[in-house]
């Protein structure tokens, strides 16, 4: 193992400031890190957290803050069977066992059920310690309302959401706010009522809201952290509660103290309170992002955004450095191991060029997927088995290293995690967050082990 993963001779010494000259020559002057992770979504942050916790010097570079700002802030492990049709999966563990047996190259199969469970527990422990518990386990899916009033199966959900579980049938009151254009309580309540879940809606018009020209989810989250605003909300709602046993708000109950906000509202209203994810930016996703970034920094790692990776240097079957765009130059980032967590077709890590070829954007790695554009989509737009193009991605070996057509690792020190991996239509089967968490966890621990071995 040491022969295959030698530590770069340039790891020690130097000052920050690597640069590329006008003729393309690289001058390495900055200190390398052990692990360089490309992408700040759930997979990238979890990989960085685990690698840093394992004693590695870790750096995350990303174009923006990551996809958690767009997600519901839950962990969708497996919501539907492969056909994408029928009832939501009630027990993810049973479905995962079938999937692992039937699809041995699936990302979950490479992690294994025990690895998936370990990743879920680790994230729950981290969030519990941060005062933001994630409730649930691999044996049961919650059925939570979406912003359209649909049933949304998810494995782990913040405690701020679980009172909305639609396995219960007691009456709900769905609350919206005048001026908030990203949440429609009437739509949620009407669709829930159509599915035999008794629900009513109400919109609140409060003085604190009229003072603001633009009412975003983040604006409301900051308002909810004020006791006077919660008092005004509760006073306006109490006469409208009726028979409602629980009250659903858009997911804006505070950025930093969400559980405190929820419990205070429950005390004031005398009802259970829960959040429903609204349109992005996702406040629950921002909470989870902040917890992971803080965990990485506490372990000595760093997360840098506004740094898009545009190319890489490779030699002798290894990645030597990747380059991000800076103001007037390219900045190299050297490392012992590299993790590609840039997302798949929907995340920007894979794109289609003018000739209809699917292309990985950083290292031009081979993409496993339909070879012809005409094979991308099925004739039926709502085909229950989905469209082949959405399962396109990178094929990897048992250590999550991207492989060539013959199954050999392309670069010995390059790993991939998250939705850039081939073999799953993540949105259709509602497995996006689960695969990102499980593979990020597995890859982070793997690279930490490799770095320790190489340094021994």
Task: Describe the model.
There is one protein chain. By secondary structure, the protein is of the alpha/beta class. The protein folds into 2 domains: 19-73 and 288-455, FAD/NAD(P)-binding domain; 162-276, Rossmann fold. It is 29% helix and 19% strand. The protein has helices at residues 42-53, 92-102, 107-111, 113-129, 185-194, 207-210, 217-224, 227-237, 258-269, 283-298, 432-455, and strands at residues 19-20, 26-27, 33-38, 58-62, 134-135, 142-145, 151-154, 157-158, 172-177, 199-204, 246-250, 272-276, 302-305, 309-315, 318-325, 330-340, 350-352, 358-360, 414-416. Strands 3, 4, 13, 14, 15, 16 and 19 form a 7-stranded mixed β-sheet that branches. The chain has a 4-stranded parallel β-sheet with strand order 10-9-11-12, with helices on both faces. Helix 1 packs parallel to helix 10, helix 4 (113-129) packs across helix 11 and helix 8 runs parallel beside helix 9. Residues 1-17 have low confidence and may be disordered.
């Amino acid at each position: 193992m040491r022969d295959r993963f030698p530590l770069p001779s340039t790891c020690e010494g130097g000052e920050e400031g690597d640069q590329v000259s006008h003729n393309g020559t690289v001058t390495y002057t900055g200190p390398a890190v052990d692990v360089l992770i490309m992408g700040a979504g759930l997979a990238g942050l979890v990989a960085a957290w685990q690698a840093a916790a394992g004693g590695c010097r870790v750096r995350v570079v990303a174009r923006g803050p990551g996809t958690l700002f767009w997600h519901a802030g839950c962990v969708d492990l497996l919501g539907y069977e492969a056909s994408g049709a029928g009832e939501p999966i009630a027990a993810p563990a049973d479905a995962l066992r079938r999937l692992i047996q039937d699809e041995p190259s699936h990302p979950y199969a490479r992690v294994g059920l025990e690895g998936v469970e370990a990743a879920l527990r680790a994230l729950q422990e981290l969030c519990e310690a941060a005062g933001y518990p994630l409730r649930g386990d691999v044996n049961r899916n919650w059925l939570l309302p979406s912003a359209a009033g649909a049933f949304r199966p998810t494995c782990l959900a913040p405690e701020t959401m679980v009172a909305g579980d639609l396995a219960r049938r007691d009456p709900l009151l769905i609350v919206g706010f005048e001026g908030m254009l990203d949440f429609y309580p009437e739509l949620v309540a009407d669709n829930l009522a159509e599915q035999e879940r008794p629900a009513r809606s109400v919109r609140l018009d409060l003085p604190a809201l009229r003072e603001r020209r633009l009412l975003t989810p983040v604006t409301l989250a900051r308002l909810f952290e004020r006791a006077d605003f919660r008092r005004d909300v509760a006073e306006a709602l109490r006469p409208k509660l009726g028979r409602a046993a629980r009250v659903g708000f858009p997911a804006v109950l505070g950025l930093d103290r969400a559980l405190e906000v929820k419990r205070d509202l429950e005390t004031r209203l005398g009802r259970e309170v829960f959040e429903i994810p609204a349109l992005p930016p996702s406040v629950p996703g921002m909470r989870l992002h902040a917890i992971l970034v803080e965990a990485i920094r506490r372990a000595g790692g760093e997360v840098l955004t506004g740094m898009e990776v545009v190319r890489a240097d490779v030699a002798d079957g290894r990645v030597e450095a990747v380059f991000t765009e800076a103001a007037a130059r390219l900045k190299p980032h050297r490392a012992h191991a590299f993790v590609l967590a840039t997302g798949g077709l929907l995340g920007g890590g894979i794109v289609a060029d003018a000739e209809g070829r699917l292309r990985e954007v950083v290292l031009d790695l081979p993409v496993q997927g339909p070879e012809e554009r005409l094979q991308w989509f099925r004739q039926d737009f709502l085909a229950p088995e989905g469209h082949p193009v959405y399962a396109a991605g990178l094929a990897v070996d048992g250590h999550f290293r991207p492989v060539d057509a013959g199954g050999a690792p392309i670069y010995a020190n390059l790993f991939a995690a998250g939705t850039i991996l081939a073999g799953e239509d993540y949105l259709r089967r509602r497995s996006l967050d689960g695969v990102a968490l499980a593979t990020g966890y597995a890859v982070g621990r793997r690279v930490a082990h490799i770095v320790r071995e190489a340094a021994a």
